[in-house]
Amino acid sequence: MKQKELNSLIARDKELDTLFEKIYEDNVSGKISDERFSKLSVKYDTEQKELNIRVKELEDELAKKRNKSVSTDMFITSVRKYTRARKLTTKMLNELIEKIEVYQAEEIDGKRIQRLKIHYNCIGSIEIPNIDKLPENNVSVHTRQGVDIHYAACAG
Q1: Residue-wise pLDDT tens digits, 91-145
Q2: Full-prediction pTM beyond 0.85?
Q3: Nearest to 9, CA basis, from 46, 66, 58
Q4: Which residues contact 102 (CB under 8 A, 6 or more apart)?
Q5: Cα 81 to chain centroid, rounded
Q6: Would you say 98 and 121 are in contact if contact means Cβ atoms under 8 Å apart?
Q7: From residue 18, how far is each of 13, 43, 48, 65 by CA, in Å?
Q8: Where are the alpha helices (DSSP H) in 82-151?
């Protein structure tokens, strides 16, 4: 949809160039007055400036969309390489994760809670939607004695 709009704006920009040339030639040949030429040229010039601003906006939006798509594809390709991995390695972490933010631990309802935010390469951090609908045993990992990991929705 945006590409179609961009194409029509570029076509209109070229059309305005042609119209401006025509009114210039008509003014030189005396077909239109200097006053009429001035009004039309200001009108065409204003429209062309507005078109150029919108063209730039659309080109930026489309470029971001292409870059995001490429980044997402790169991330998915990286993840697919490790779907059958039995052990987490440094190479895997470096390829998949950009950074991990570790927040101050808090005591909530007698339990020590520490929030982590994982920023993945190419796609950023992922918010887990409405975790309350998932049964708790499906999102808990018992890593070692006394340490349980529970995935929870991110607060921000």
Answers
A1: 888 888 888 888 888 888 888 888 888 888 777 776 655 555 545 444 455 555 5
A2: no
A3: 58
A4: 114, 116
A5: 25
A6: yes
A7: 9, 14, 12, 32
A8: 90-96
